[in-house]
Every structure is written in C-alpha cells, then in structure tokens.
Amino acid sequence: MASDDSRSLVIVGIDGRVIAPLTVFAVDGALSEADQAAFLWSPSAQLPATTEVIETDNFGIGISATLLERHGDRDFGFERWLFFGEDATVAAILGPVAPYGLAFVEETAKAVLRQSALEGFVASSDRVRVDALDRAVVRFGEEWPA
Prior knowledge:
By secondary structure, the chain is α+β, with helices and mostly antiparallel strands.
C-alpha cells in the first residue's frame, strides 16, 4: 500500500516464521513536542520503552522507541522511529508483531530505513530534540508505575 505521503511494506524474518508491517510516512513541518511523545510512547505499554539514537544517510539522526504493548488481552511488539528535517518529519512504525518476533524483523526494518530517501527532505543537523527525547525515557531500574 502506498500514498503520496506513506509507504507500507511487509518485513519477513529470515526463516519466514515472522512477518511484520513497516509503515513509513512523512508529515510537512515539525510535529509538536506533544505529538512526538504521543507517537513514540504508548499508554498501553507494559514496560518502559527502549530507545536508540539512529543515524541514516538520507534522514539524518533520529530516535527509535521499542515497546511492548497490550491491546485487549494480547501483547504486541512495536518499534517506532522519528527523523527530524528542516521542513518535514519522517516517521515509521514496525508492528504489530508477536513480542518475541520483533528481534527477527527489527534489523531488516532498520536496513530499509537506512537505505530510504524522501525527495526534498533535508535532515536537521540539530540533535537537541533527539537527545531530549532519549533522556525523557524511563530507564530499566527507574520508577515505573505498576
């Protein structure tokens, strides 16, 4: 599935046992800080998010958040990415996928993002927002509401 501002792919694990959707989309302009947080974190998360600062040739420096979420009576793994540009934001979502399966498709999704490009997208060289989002995450061993 594709539209002018999004692309959806199916990522298949090496052994073919795990498949997961990867959706990449662009938004004109910058997302508000509240929208950035709402995209990366989820109220249905079962554990604190794990973040990673990632760098790509075309999208520049971005941040990913890996989450275990509960929807109904089922748990799913998700990974979400944000890349900040001068005049646009690129976002991506991997999942839903069985939590154990995320490990089998995550590296392929990262490779897709590292090789992707968006015509006219100029990556921001300012990593202040990426670092602020990374610091905002509750880390293992810190307080987490039960």
